[in-house]
Amino acid sequence: GAGVSQSPSNKVTEKGKDVELRCDPISGHTALYWYRQSLGQGLEFLIYFQGNSAPDKSGLPSDRFSAERTGGSVSTLTIQRTQQEDSAVYLCASSAAGGPFDEQFFGPGTRLTVL
Amino acid sequence: AQSVTQPDIHITVSEGASLELRCNYSYGATPYLFWYVQSPGQGLQLLLKYFSGDTLVQGIKGFEAEFKRSQSSFNLRKPSVHWSDAAEYFCAVGGTNAGKSTFGDGTTLTVKP
Question: What's the rounded mean pLDDT across residues A25-53?
Answer without folding.
Answer: 90
